[in-house]
Amino acid sequence: MTKKIAVLPGDGIGPEIVAEALKVLDCLVRDFGLQVETEIALIGGAAYDALGTPFPAATLALCRAADAVLLGAVGGPRWESLPYEVRPERGLLGLRAELELFANLRPAILYPPLAAASSLKPERVAGLDLIIVRELTGGLYFGQPRGRRLTPSGEREGYNTLVYRESEIRRIAEVAFQTARKRRKRLCSVDKANVLECSELWREVVSEVGRDYPDVALSHLYVDNAAMQLVRAPTQFDVVVTDNMFGDILSDCAAMLTGSIGMLPSASLDQRGKGLYEPIHGSAPDIAGQGIANPIATVLSLAMLLRYSCDDAATAERVERAVLAALDAGYRTADIHSEGTRKVSTGEMGDAIVAALRAFNP
Ligand code: NAD
């Protein structure tokens, strides 16, 4: 059955990197008979400029009707002075919440040709292959009450609420245990249970869910220690599960271990496997429009889309192998370029991946 993909390029480098993922998709449709159709819609600053809202109703309707959503990135300095409710990021947060995309899967894999681009010594990151499962629709980023106010003495005060219900913790823990079960069967839950009651409950519920997964080895780390371990000995991790804010920070930290934030894809899934797929990086306004952004995170997000929302692991692997082949052949965008490799533009990297895909065609 033909799958429908909503494509939201967004802002900054978003349209540039999404164009390369679409080149790859086009090749899969034309040369490999993949049955998908795409429709493009506005989100973020681009939607605000065109329609006065970062999250148009038509975009939500398209995403609801689609089997999966492929997104570039949103945001940029042009929209930073807008009121909070119409900032580009509200479009993305709104989409995640409306589609109930509570499980964010962020793999961090070190591709051997990029060992030199990692921020750590090659021997510390050799073999790195971990996945961070981040809770995405609860916690501090959504908790109420939130806001700014004046104290009785007239001082400005900002406040947010960290809150998790048992059911929210349970469903993300289930996703994490199931993910671990398909991998090396090790799950590390990250919290701050020594300080936060919310984390205490997190640890309790994750441990309870763990009783149904005796084949998965569960461990717990406080977030400060987890951050330290990620840069000390990152290959000890297989699957890491954590809350919204800790996951936001730890996954960027893991990103640097792989060489560039431009390499890391993500999937945000609902309870039925429908998903939003996007690179973990932002709209990179500092390099937008220059044709130098790395499109690999977006191409690998497309691979995740094929795996999780189209249930097509074979085509997903084909895309991942094509990315590796392009890297093996020495193609590098500026962010991962090193001596002895060939520096290419965003478009040339997309072309190299497509050429590698075609080379596999039987
Ligand atoms: P960023 O991820 O956009 O950029 C951080 C650094 O990484 C920059 O130096 C950038 O040039 C580089 N970089 C990012 N992606 C790259 C790629 N594909 N290739 C090469 N280099 C890349 O983070 P930021 O600068 O903190 O945020 C910029 C804007 O993006 C802000 O408006 C922010 O709110 C937004 N943002 C959006 C998302 C999202 O859409 N999911 C996520 C994070 C930030």
UniProtKB/TrEMBL annotation:
Alphabetized SUPFAM superfamilies for the sequence: Isocitrate/Isopropylmalate dehydrogenase-like
Primary localization class, coarse: cytoplasm
Q: Which biological pathway?
A: Amino-acid biosynthesis; L-leucine biosynthesis; L-leucine from 3-methyl-2-oxobutanoate: step 3/4
- Keywords of the record: Amino-acid biosynthesis, Branched-chain amino acid biosynthesis, Cytoplasm, Leucine biosynthesis, Magnesium, Manganese, Metal-binding, NAD, Oxidoreductase
Q: Where in the cell is it found?
A: Cytoplasm
Summarize where substrate binds, as residue positions: R96, R106, R134, D224
InterPro entries (UniProt xref): IsoCit/isopropylmalate_DH_CS (IPR019818), IsoPropMal-DH-like_dom (IPR024084), Isopropylmalate_DH (IPR004429)
What are the site positions for Important for catalysis? Answer: Y141, K192
Report the cofactors: Mg(2+); Mn(2+)
Q: Where are the transmembrane segments?
A: none
Output this protein's name. Answer: 3-isopropylmalate dehydrogenase
> Highest lineage ranks of the organism?
Bacteria, Pseudomonadati, Pseudomonadota, Gammaproteobacteria, Methylococcales
